[in-house]
Please model this.
Amino acid sequence: MQGFDPVFAVSEWLRELLLGWGASELVTRVTLQFIGAFVVGMGIMLIFVVLTWVERKGAARFQDRIGPNRVGPYGVIQPIADALKMLTKEDTRPKGADAFSYVLAPIVAVFSVLMAWAVIPFTEKWIGADLSVGILYIAAVGSFSIVAVMMAGWSSNNKYSLIGAFRGVAQLISYEVPLFLSLLVPVFLARSMGVNSIVNAQGAENGGVWFILMAPLAAIIYFVSSMAEVGRAPFDLLEAESELVAGYHVEYSGIKFGLFQAAEFLHSFTFAALMAILFFGGWRGPGPDVWYLQLFWFFLKTSVFYLMIIWSRLTFPRVRIDQLMNLNWKFMVPVSLILLMGMPLIEYAARGADNWVRVASHSSFNIVLFVVSFALAARSDRKTQTRERVRFEGRPVAVMPKTPAAEEEPAA
Amino acid sequence: MEPIQIVFLIGAALVVVSAVMVVTRRNLIHAALYLILTLFGVAVIFVLLQAYYWAVIQVVVYIGAIAILIIMAIMVTRDVTGETVEPFNRNLIGAALLGVMAAGVLIWSLSDWPGFSALAPAAETGEIVVQDLGVQLFSAEGYLLPTILASVLLLAALIAAIRIAFPNETEEDN
Model:
């Protein structure tokens, strides 16, 4: 143990206290586990408060506005006001809604996000449960969010929300494939599915090389498909305002809508944290291995990726459903499959070689695959566009109206 | 009572109650949602057996894929607003009789099995079985041939599904 660690100090103190009150060893352990789970869950929910402020302020800056600036300095207390507004709004339920699923859906949505944080290491020692199948566990609890979307869309008794849910499920199921395939690359490089083992594998035993250097293409595929998995712009087809009003949560109001929003924001934050853990060394960073620096590095990397998600949300236009599916099935899935088959071969060929040879061959394979696949995709895209143009030539979809001056000419 | 026993009882009750709900609900979507709860309860029991890998696979495959597929199939083929169906028909008595008989045969044949009274031997290792599983699946002495045969079968099914879903070129231009 290096020096003082507040979490362990507090838990030791609580242990002594409970034992001193005459609680048995077992009751103490169970109580402490419950308190730990509560603290992690509540801490993540509190991060949501910060995230709403970041989101509003960031969006405002991107759109050349000031954003929240009335409540507190720089509007930092604005989220509290937002939360109060949400809590005091009327909690409506549409006529004909299915009460059971309607109430349960936002709870399941938040549940699926908070469960993932049980295995995420904040520092070297601060981890809820260091499961040996941590990555698979995160994938498993993430699949509950599909159930939540489905329940919300169906139970609202609204056509828009049902269409939104159908679109959402199609998108989420499709993008789970490249997401999981790219998750397998760090798992393969670390030879472990444990989340903390993956962070440890990016340390001294790997020559201090983060996996982003060995698998940049996997990181890109992971980042894009995680954005699609959260369902935020440019992949927010499940709540396209101009087509579906608000998609699967159109009928939700008050705190139920707030829970959906919390689930969406925290889902993005979870994926940002996973990006930091899987490809950028998690809590690793320059400086001594003390808990406060590790915590700082972890949250710094996570915030950078969260800001990147906001950035792309505010910059890119929404994709069409066919573009969405083509990108997934015709580009990302094949590329990640080739990646997953090629990298073990390179690992095998580079066995016994120096570590830098191994790293260099992995990254050059990634870069070559990136360039080749993008060139092929661009070529096929040009062909498709030419074909579409030829096909639609001669029968324009919209005719430009004649100007009044041109109409008046024959009369004059 | 140990806390692990309490968790087991809660998980087992969850499985049994929600399984009964699955077959008695009139609303098919509700039945499917209770099915998800049943499968989740089974995952809880896997966790109690320290089979974390199986617990997680249970959730990924059954809840993440199969339950979603069932819900989608119900919504696409039935009235999406929640058609109610009559869960019982004329075969109720016969099916119940058959179920009771099957249970009776099972109980009778298992009644002198020593596993009920004796303690199960402790597992050899802690929980690291995923590596063993992988080695067994892909070693020539293990289950390499069945694994490959199953993969080929799944690939064939996948290609067949794509072929069926493929748009018919002659109809496309109309």
Remarks:
- Chain A has a mean pLDDT of 82.
- Chain A has two domains: 10-88, 93-384.
